[in-house]
Amino acid sequence: MPLLSDETRARIRRAVAAGWILTCVFLLVRTLYLRHAPSKVWWDAEEVELLLMAALSGPTSFLPIWLSSMTPLGSQWWPYPGNDARTIIVVWLCFFAAGCLQWFLLVPWLVHKGYDLFDYARARFRHRGQQKRPML
Question: What is the tens place of the pLDDT at every residue in 36-78?
Fold first, then answer.
């Protein structure tokens, strides 16, 4: 007997996904709102956005950081200043895409494969226990 029904699990997954997306969108809107604030406030807002988006996106968020550091020019090829809306949105989209890839594709796939592996092992164990052993 499962701990939670499939319907309850689906509701929990949808609620967690909606919370994750709303938190990411809130960080984007907050940073866009504070882009013309004094430099100290802007610096803090930018750092908070980067750190929280990296935390929300988990380990895959380091992929965009690593890829941008591997280009010969780094981020020097980007012509817009740091508090420009285009820069804020592009950085946010990189983290958001990495998080979506991780939390909505890779993790569910791995969990599904883990359940399949568990079911396979359980079936093999039951089958093995039902075989008759020769008497010596």
Answer: 888 888 878 888 888 888 888 888 877 767 776 666 655 565 6
Residues ≥6 apart with Cβ < 8 Å to 91: 49, 50, 53
Residue 4, both tokens: 């939670």
Residue 128 CA from chain centroid, whole number: 40
- Please tell me the pTM assigned to this model: 0.72
Supply the DSSP string of 27-44, one letter for each residue: HHHHHHHGGGS-HHHHHH
3-state class (DSSP) for residue 8: helix
Give the span between the Cα atoms of 120 and 49, in whole angstroms: 43
Domain ranges of the chain: 6-130
Angle at 8 between CA 2 and CA 10, to 5 degrees: 110
At 41, the amino acid letter reads V
